Amino acid sequence: MRLSYAVQLDSSSRAVQVSSDEACFMCVLHALRADRDARSTAKVNVLIRHIVMWKLNEGEGRTREQNASVLKEKLEACRDAVPGIVHLEVGIATPGLDSTYDVVLVSDFTDKAALDAYQVHPAHQAVKAFLAPIREARQAVDYEL
């Protein structure tokens, strides 16, 4: 079965006879092009990457390594508790490798408002309270992706 399908080539349009499979393929191409065009003109939210590194001490009845493990658990609990987190990854420095910090957090937020909400969220406040007596140093950087 042959169908008539309008095709636009450059600035001219013309009707061509195509099979139903070819027509389906052309419809898919048209939909993909429309989607691409819509995305290129839509306002794109800029993700915010939030990176923090901590150097820890012994304290609260735990070794430095134990405190790093507990911190990792507490930070990872924020992943599902705090809205607006797109990605959250926590790493603990590998023993035997040169490291100046013990724990690193790499997290991405939907926007600055989501990062701001994270800062005051009870789950994050619990992390800060845990860190207060065991933190030796902290470094952080936030930037747009």
UniProtKB/TrEMBL annotation:
It comes from the Bacteria. It holds the Pfam family Dabb. Residues 48-143 form the Stress-response A/B barrel domain. InterPro entries: Dabb, Dimeric_a/b-barrel. This is Stress protein. It comes from Paraburkholderia steynii.
